Amino acid sequence: MAVNGNIYRPMKAVVEKVIDESPLIKTFVLVPERAFSFKTGEFIELTLDGIGEAPFTPSSSPLIKERFDVTIMKAGYVTELMHKLEPGAVLGVRGPYGRGYPLEKFIDKEVIILSGGCGLAPIRSLLYALIDIKDKLRKVTLCYGSKTPQDCIYKPLFSQLNQIDNFSTLRTVDFADRYWDEHVGVATVLLDHIDIDLPNAVAVVCGPPVMMKYGTMKLLEKGFPDHLIYLSMEKNMSCGLGKCGHCMLGGYFVCRDGPVFTYDEIKDQPHIW
Amino acid sequence: MAGYYKLDKEVWDGALAGILNTYRVFAPLKGVKATDYECIGEAHIPDIVYNHPKPVIPLKTFFIPIKENVVADTAGIHPTIIMGIPGCDLAALDLLDKFFLDEDYPDTYYASRRKHTILVGADCHLTDTHCHCTSYGLNPYPEKHHDLSVHVLNGHVWLSSHSEKGAHLLSGILDSVSFESMDEVPLEIQHVRQQQKRELEKRNKRLPNYQESTDAVVNSEASVWHSYSRTCVSCGACATICPTCTCFLLIDRPGFEKVRQLDACQYPGFERTAGGEDPLKRLDNRFKNRYLCKYLYRPEKYEAMACTGCGRCIDACIGKIDKNELLVELTK
Ligand SMILES: Cc1cc2nc3c(=O)[nH]c(=O)nc-3n(C[C@H](O)[C@H](O)[C@H](O)COP(=O)(O)OP(=O)(O)OC[C@H]3O[C@@H](n4cnc5c(N)ncnc54)[C@H](O)[C@@H]3O)c2cc1C
Ligand code: SF4
Ligand code: SF4
Ligand code: FES
To answer: pLDDT tens for residues A34-77?
Structure first.
């Protein structure tokens, strides 16, 4: 996407609403000053004025243009300060950047999604996009893991998805409490509880690095071919424009060539997890 | 304006004084320890060093300064002439232009500086100890990206133009002075070129060429990186001084302004993420990354060389690490 003018200057967006998702995760509903559209899986650079900038993937439906959501986990300096924002605050937005999910390749397929923690943010946007084309999909299965039931985000999303005929969800927590009646254990164990029609399936993995690694291993074990496993790679980023070099994954710039890659594209690069 | 134009040195010096009224001119001057670009005034004209090997700082510094506010500043609109640019630094513009002038996200600061700058190339009539451009198929004289070239030989000056910008400047100079002209590269220039080229080839006989270096880096054993990086202090001098290292960091300033500051993969934490992962945490991995970037990643992605053989990183290294020795060892 070509940009006119200054590639480093963000546009402004006003925080309309702040939603507490978990003790560490909040969703910010942003209203940008200009029309803004993104493809699911593309990311933005969000600026906290004078403080810092960090990459996030919008978690709302790509079909909605007037406002969009970003779901932010408290992870360090900038995100911690972002968590203090209240409605009315003004943020800077650059983007959207990168290469998102190739929805056209999911047509007529069964989509297995493995997600953990805050990795559900980009996945929620993907799910909304998939709901929009649900008649063209065989099946969508979401396997989601979080540390504790409290850390499980987007609770209403799961019942919404379960009401759609060809969508289903499974959840697990590492540490259950006495009210939890779903799975217990790391996210990858959920893959043992689903039927996969391998010849017609694609897999999407998005979550913390350990989950990405073991999730991918498990999918390979189950017989998924390398080129049908879609991974959202998280790297340090600064510019988002393929210039600053911070996000290098071997020869790739994750910000331009990704963040979504198939496993076969990156498996030979050093230090992928 | 094709051809070569021969002027007396005093005539050229006079023309340069006139040019100073319109342009900001940077030219190599001799310092206490080295020769480097300075912003010159009329008094400096007789002291300009011609046809010297590369100045201390790489050309990139003019287009991507160490630190620049890329939201607030109005960059580089002052017409500028940079003199004395060696072929290796000009060749580095292949990669820099691909990075900063790419169609999707052109950097307007870089673009405007490039547009308003006239590049005056210089043949190297001498070479430095670590110069190795010829090992990578380059020559010790400008071959691309320069607008004008200036040779000072045997008390006179040869000028030639290589672009529209250069032709415009040259015709302005020639308007008011007397000169001789030649269509072909003058023999005296050809002679020095051959001599310098032979000298470099002889000196760097043991050095692998670009492709051989790439193969050697890719197929290397971990132990080499471990042992060569032992004296590396992660100061980043090798990257700062390199004409093709362009990595940077955006730093936020109030008013949604951003400062683009040169950065380097050699600094600890360059790739650290919030979760704590840091693929380049280990010194030897970080050290090797620079070689992978130069000999594999950049050339593969941009079809441009990311080492032009200027030798600056070898001169600059506090840990006395010699990139070329390492490459020779890898190809043994
Ligand atoms: C493409 C992409 C999409 C992302 N989407 C989301 C999302 O939807 N929700 C969410 O909560 N998080 C997301 N992240 C991670 C988020 O960007 C980091 O948590 C955030 O940058 C941490 O910043 P910090 O200043 O709080 O952390 P610190 O650790 O204090 O950061 C210090 C510095 O390191 C850089 N940095 C640290 N970690 C990262 C990182 N993981 N990625 C990039 N730069 C980093 C920061 O830019 C900063 O300069 C995404 C990351 C990427 C690459
Ligand atoms: S890597 Fe070293 S020799 Fe090569 S261009 Fe950079 S500074 Fe010069
Ligand atoms: S060698 Fe390192 S600092 Fe230089 S361009 Fe490559 S990644 Fe950036
Ligand atoms: S974030 Fe700057 S190159 Fe990718």
So the answer is: 989 999 999 999 999 999 999 999 999 999 999 999 999 999 99
Q: What are phi and psi of B271, to 5 degrees?
A: -115, 15
CB-defined contacts A:B, below 8 A = 108
CA B40 vs CA A149, B36, B321: distances in Å: 69, 11, 34
Provide, as residue numbers in chain A, all residues whose Cβ is less than 8 Å from the Cβ of B285: 270-271
Ligand 3: nearest atom to the Cα of B293: 6
Where in chain B are the domains? 4-203, 210-330
Domains of chain A: 11-97 (2.40.30.10), 103-232 (3.40.50.80)
Protein residue with least CA distance to atom 3, ligand 4: A242
Distance CA B19, CA B11 (A): 13
Please answer whether residues A9 and B105 qualify as being in contact, where contact means their C-beta atoms are separated by less than 8 angstroms: no
Residue B76 has pLDDT above 60, yes or no: no
The average pLDDT across B156-183 equals 94
User: For residue A251, which residues of chain B lie inside 8 Å, CB to CB?
Assistant: 296-297, 300-301
What would the mean pLDDT of B189-215 be, rounded to a whole number? 97
Mean pLDDT of B222-230: 96
- The Cα–Cα gap between A132 and A42 comes to 18
Q: Give pTM, 2 decimals.
A: 0.95
Q: How far is the CA of B250 from the centre of ligand 4 (A)?
A: 10
Judged by CB atoms closer than 8 Å, whether chains meet at B270 and A236 is answered as yes
Q: In the prediction, which pLDDT does B77 show?
A: 75
Structure tokens, B184: 């072909």
What are B2's two structure tokens?
A: 């094709």
Helix residue ranges, H only, B155-297: 164-174, 187-203, 210-218, 222-228, 237-240, 283-292
Q: What is the ipTM of this complex?
A: 0.94
Interacting residues of B164 by C-beta distance below 8 A, sequence separation 6+: none
Facing residue for A245 by CB, picked from B254, B265, B277: B265
